[in-house]
């Protein structure tokens, strides 16, 4: 039995982006059963929503059935007009996440279209989607030539022929929630908590790299690293340890070579002692 296929779009002021993308998907043989437009409620976005809805009279799109569903973003009972603070970020993230979770619980195949609105909305959509998307789902972006953008502006043109130069581009994704189901537990958290978890995860990853470098150094090299991590420059390290600047530089070269390896940096990328300070200043207490 074929899965229901749903196009979820972040709606901005250019409703034609949604119809351009939908036309391209249909031309590829995709059977899109529903189009969901997630939108803010400023007058500009509502005008765009009205124009887009005109393309779906009687739940039909051209000669096929296709349900159109607007999803306004609300803060409680209040329509959200813009994304201007952390609370608004949280509301948008939660709305998109819950929408995607609902659709995945229905076993729908998803096409996520980053089609407009505030850039932050697109970022939040990707962030929320990564925890729920599965192999077979897609994230899309539409390319529209400059001349056509002007001609079609604000939905003046909703459909164009193939030779118009519109291109549907797929963004490669790793559906983390599918590969690592435990990550879906993050959905129970607020966006602020997710960001805090992400920070802790990144901090843990950085500490592991720091410890990897630390284990490969001699005791004297560790003393040099610790001094750099405490904010000293080359001359200050030399004075503090009672060694020459030349010796400091020799130890620094070894340390930076190990950093290159631990962080898998491109060959030839030049590092300075500032890299040591930035990476190790928070790790000194756990380096043993």
Number of domains: 2
Give helix % range.
40-55%
Quaternary status: single chain
Q: How would you characterize the largest beta sheet?
A: 6 strands, mixed
Tell me the Rg in angstroms.
26 Å
CA distance, first residue to last residue: 58 Å
**Strand arrangement, major sheet:** 5-2-1-8-9-10
Low-confidence stretches: none
Structural class: alpha/beta
Given the structure, what is the number of helices? 11
Q: What sort of overall outline do the alpha carbons produce when their principal axes are compared? A: elongated
- CATH topology-level name of the largest domain: Rossmann fold
CATH superfamily of the largest domain: Hypothetical protein VC1899 like domain (Restriction endonuclease-like)
> In percent, how much strand structure appears in the residues?
5-15%
Supply the CATH class of the largest domain: Alpha Beta
Can you tell me about this structure?
This protein has helices spanning 16-27, 43-53, 86-105, 119-130, 146-152, 176-179, 191-215, 219-229, 234-241, 245-262, 273-280, and strands at residues 5-10, 34-39, 60-61, 64-65, 67-72, 74-75, 78-79, 109-113, 138-143, 167-171. It is α/β, with parallel strands linked by helices. The chain has 2 domains: 5-188, Hypothetical protein VC1899 like domain (Restriction endonuclease-like) (Rossmann fold), CATH 3.40.50.10770; 193-286, Response regulator (Rossmann fold), CATH 3.40.50. The strands form 3 sheets. Strands 5-2-1-8-9-10 form a 6-stranded mixed β-sheet, with helices on both faces. Strands 3-4 form a two-stranded antiparallel sheet. A hairpin with a 2-residue loop joins strand 6 and strand 7. The protein starts with a strand and ends in an 8-residue tail after the last helix. 29% of the residues are buried.
């Amino acid at each position: 039995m074929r899965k229901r296929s749903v196009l979820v779009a972040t709606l901005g002021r250019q409703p034609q982006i949604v119809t351009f993308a939908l036309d391209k998907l249909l031309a590829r043989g995709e059977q899109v059963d529903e189009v969901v437009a997630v939108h803010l409620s400023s007058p500009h976005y509502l005008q765009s929503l009205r124009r887009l809805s005109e393309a779906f009279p009687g739940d039909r799109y051209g000669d096929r059935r296709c349900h159109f569903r607007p999803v306004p973003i609300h803060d409680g009972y209040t329509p959200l007009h813009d994304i201007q603070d952390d609370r608004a970020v949280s509301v948008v993230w939660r709305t998109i996440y819950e929408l995607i979770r609902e659709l995945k619980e229905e076993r729908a195949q998803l096409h996520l279209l980053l089609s407009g609105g505030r850039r932050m909305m697109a970022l939040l959509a990707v962030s929320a989607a990564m925890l729920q998307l599965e192999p077979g789902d897609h994230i899309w972006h539409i390319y529209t030539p400059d001349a056509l953008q002007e001609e079609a502006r604000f939905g003046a043109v909703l459909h164009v022929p193939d030779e118009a130069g519109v291109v549907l581009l797929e963004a490669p994704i790793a559906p983390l929630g599918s590969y690592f189901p435990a990550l879906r537990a993050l959905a129970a958290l607020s966006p602020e908590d997710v960001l805090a978890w992400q920070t802790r995860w990144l901090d843990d990853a950085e500490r592991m790299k720091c410890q990897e470098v630390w284990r490969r150094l001699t005791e004297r090299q560790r003393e040099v690293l610790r001094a750099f991590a405490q904010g000293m420059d080359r001359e200050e390290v030399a004075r503090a340890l009672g060694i020459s600047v030349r010796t400091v530089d020799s130890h620094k070269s070894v340390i930076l070579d190990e950093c290159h390896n631990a962080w898998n940096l491109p060959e030839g990328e030049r590092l300075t002692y500032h890299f040591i300070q930035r990476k190790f200043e928070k790790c000194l207490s756990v380096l043993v």
